[in-house]
Write a structure and sequence with these properties.
mainly alpha, 14 helices
Length: 375
């Protein structure tokens, strides 16, 4: 095994320790390797989870004190951020409830509740679904003053709209559809219809907001993983989230979801993810949605470890505009063997988006190119 592969295997072991899945950890970790482990945790948005692992180690196995202090301060910032996110999610839930709207917190803060320590998961935006559909929800955002201070209405994407950062630094995405799309329009129509019915089954949790059912989360977050895997990439934080969902699911939840994977166009991504979960976190096969797919799984895991969370550390991020465009097209073409029924739609969708943004800039007489054109 090469030194690089050995480091990666040690990181997987460290991640399992951090999640409370094992008490075993190698003795052979020097200062240089600890620096690499921290760097990898940062790239994968797993700093808070990793610090939990550091705390679980005996003194003789811990990293140098200076590094522990750095890790501690990063983890404490994450804990504070989670507390703020939970408070803001609860506030938005109350705000929309006063207007008679059902809501559900999706992904991040809902997932954090499932971890051994609810405040260690590194948060991103707050994702909140609000019932009513696109036009009704956009009107509601104006009515509640959540768009005050903007010179123009924000652009609503396929399933959500981003709110301006509020005074507490919270970033919020308000969903008027329950999920991002799969690119095949026929599979997407079936999936969205099922999710729209399933999201009505919510539960009020002690944090003061509603969360959807586990079976909804299993489909919605698999769709989210699929969408980003086809685009920029995913990270190990997505893998850990899905692991927690599966551990908190019932056999009936998994059966219901497994029966729909093919219909929703998610079966290839599910097989890849099950292989990654088995490889990295040693997921019990009885908890898997389908048979693990080693070919697609190895591709997915290489992409995760090279690109980091959402592909933010991929080499293509440092390329110039045209080379980045070519790299993104090339990525999708190379993925044809992974999902031949989905990738052509993904490629057409990406190219269509580039053309639409280009036409929009021409109409506004903006002739310079920016990174947003080829995002």
């Amino acid at each position: 095994m090469s030194n690089s592969n050995n480091h990666i295997e040690i990181f997987y072991q460290f991640l399992r320790l951090s999640l409370g899945l094992t008490q075993e950890f190698t003795d052979d970790v020097d200062k240089e390797l600890w620096q690499w482990l921290l760097k990898t945790a940062i790239r994968q948005s797993l700093v808070g989870i990793g610090y939990q692992g550091v705390c679980l180690l005996p003194d003789e196995k811990r990293p140098p004190l200076k590094m522990i202090k750095k890790w501690f301060f990063l983890a404490e910032a994450i804990r504070g951020r989670n507390e703020l996110q939970n408070q803001e999610a609860a506030r938005l839930t109350r705000l929309f409830a006063e207007k008679g709207r059902k809501t559900a917190i999706l992904k991040g803060q809902a997932n954090a509740r499932l971890y051994p320590d609810k405040l260690n998961r590194q948060p991103g935006d707050i994702d909140i679904w609000v019932e009513g559909g696109r036009d009704s929800v956009m009107a509601l955002l104006v009515e509640t003053g959540l768009l005050d201070g903007l010179s123009k209405m924000p652009t609503a994407l396929y399933h959500h709209v981003e709110l301006p950062e509020n005074g507490r630094g919270a970033m919020v995405e308000v969903h008027f559809r329950p999920s991002s799309r799969v690119y095949n329009p026929f599979a997407n129509r079936r999936m969205q219809r099922w999710l729209e019915a399933e999201i009505l089954h919510t539960e009020l949790v002690e944090e003061g907001f509603y969360v959807p059912s586990v079976r909804f989360a299993l489909v919605m977050q698999l769709s989210h993983i699929h969408h980003h895997f086809m685009g920029e990439g995913i990270g190990l934080r997505h893998v850990c989230d899905y692991f927690m969902l599966l551990r908190n699911s019932s056999a009936e939840d998994r059966r219901v979801v497994a029966e729909r994977l093919m219909s929703f166009g998610l079966h290839h991504t599910a097989g890849a993810l099950m292989w990654v979960l088995g490889k990295v976190l040693l997921l019990d096969p009885s908890l898997m949605l389908c048979e693990p797919d080693s070919y697609r799984g190895e591709w997915m895991l290489r992409d995760i470890m090279s690109g980091g969370n959402f592909g933010l550390y991929s080499q293509r991020q440092s390329l110039g505009l045209w080379r980045k465009f070519c790299a993104k097209v090339s990525r999708r073409v190379r993925m044809l063997t992974l999902d031949p029924a989905e990738v052509p739609y993904s490629l057409v969708h990406y190219l269509q988006g580039v053309v639409e943004r280009m036409i929009g800039r021409i109409r506004r007489r903006i002739l310079s190119l920016t990174r947003h054109l080829f995002k």
